[in-house]
Amino acid sequence: MTREYLPANCYTCKKCLICFTLDTCKCDKSVKPIRVGNPQRGQQIYSRVFTPNEELQTANQFLFSANEKFQYNSNFNIPFSFTFCSTCNSKFQRLKGNDKLAKRKDIYTKKKKILAEKEEKILEKSTNKMNSISIDVEDTKSSDLVDEEDEDDISEFSEVEDYGIDQIKLQIAIEKKGKKTSTSKTITIKPVEYITVIEGINNAVQKALKNRNIKPADYSMSYKAVNARGLSSTLEDKLDFNEFIEDYKKIIAAGKKVSIIIVIGDDSTNEKTKSKRSKASDKSDSSASDEERNQRILSNSKKKRKSRATQENDLSKEEQTRAGIIATLCEKYKCDMHNTPCFIQENRHLQLNPARLQLWACEIHNKNTTYDVPPTFPTFNAALGTLVNKNNDTQIPTIASTTSTTPVNPIVIQMPYPYSHSPSNTFIHPTSIHPISSPTTNHELPSVTEFFLNLDQKYNCNNVYSKFKNAFLEEEITVNTIKDLTDEQMVKLGIVKIGWQKNIRQAAQRY
Q1: Which of 396, 414, 440 is the last residue of a domain?
Q2: Which of 264, 282, 300 is the C-terminal boundary of a domain?
Q3: Fewer CB within 10 Å, N or C, the chain?
């Protein structure tokens, strides 16, 4: 009795791909099931199309047996579609892999036979020119050559692995070290083998950069899902590749694409340009006289010895904007009584030191405040300012004494790091009372932006530490947990130098 194949059944085990049971059910099996994005374990659906192919004998026999067992009466002379469950699909892929391996062995056997025939012809020609001793030596060499090729081929076939997928589709993103621009290209690679995939990626990099001399050793390679946040995973060896295949299956099952990130240095991309420049410089040096060479060497040494001050062109656009904001604040709040600008409110002079100016400029640049209203940080509290009497221009201390029966708690002038509270850093005019010290050692927890900005100010750096703030914010790391980070975690966050790690940990010990 002939039974028509229904697309909601697995072709080889007849499992229902709607309720995933082998028992008789009432599901409508005439409708092809839809594959979901995140299926449960054992509920994956694989749609396949049969194409007549005599080379896949074992895999085709798997389908022939199911057709005979369930009497589908399928026509294997023309292509048709069918559906697999996860178990049958895995078995089918293994059978296809065995067929491909058998085909490769057959090709190798034919090549070996042709090679043997050529060697026989060479030996026949050599018998007319060599004596019997040389013939024996030649036979020994040829036999050794065949044995070595046999061993290499056996090892080659033994390393073949079946990853369960026929091809992979990747988006190659090529970035140059030190530059934000990148080149993107989508490629498809098959079959899925470690060497084939690495060579396919390298060919794409060579075509994109128009340099056939680039090798995988000239760049670093990592991967992650397209538009995914967080760090990417490295892809350097065979073990990384096996993990990459597992992650690739999960990402594709979620309906996303996989991106291969290539970070290449300037040395490999500019190799030809550098060689041309070196040749041109050699020619110019050979044609120049000894006197001109000496003068050029002296002038170059003088230029190296000269220390050049930071120019406006050395600053980034954001830094130039902040510098302009600071200049405007200094002019707007210029104080006649103090050398530093002051924000005056109710006769209280809050001196705008470099730390306060930097914070205010950052907040104005981020459009969180204006020139007339200071930020809401504790360091801008008006109570921290010096009270000035307009009548006799005398300065009154910030904290006045009260009756002896009422205890007075000293006010700690809390400044962002490195302007920490100490008797010498209290911003009270010298004519006021003695500086106020605090016995407490607790420090108010600053934000990540303030923390790295203060480190740049302490070590007189130009955005050396502030560039790490985005990585810390992305990983939701607060200042009080920085001291617990390991060296490996620091490196993942981009802090690769030992000096940077020590300075950051030392500053974080305060919180």
Answers
A1: 396
A2: 264
A3: N
Residue 431 lies in a domain: no
Cα 363 to chain centroid, rounded: 30
CA distance 369 to 371: 7
In tens, the pLDDT along 300-343 reads: 555 444 445 566 667 788 888 989 999 999 998 988 888 889 99
Report field, pTM of the whole predicted structure over 0.70: no
Tokens of 54: 């005599």
CA–CA gap between residue 245 and residue 27 (Å, rounded): 35
* Residue 139 backbone dihedrals phi, psi, to 5 degrees: -65, -40
Task: Give the DSSP per-residue string, 324-374.
Answer: HHHHHHHHHT--SSSSS-EEEETTEEEE--HHHHHHHHHHHHTTSS-SSS-
Which pair of structure tokens corresponds to residue 364?
A: 């104005």
Same domain, residue pair 102 and 17: yes
Least confident of 129-138, 164-173, 230-239, 416-425: 416-425
Q: What is the DSSP string of 168-203?
A: EEEEEEEEETT-S-EEEEEEEE-S--HHHHHHHHHH
Q: Which residue has the higher pLDDT, 500 or 132?
A: 500
**Token pair 């229904």: residue:** 6
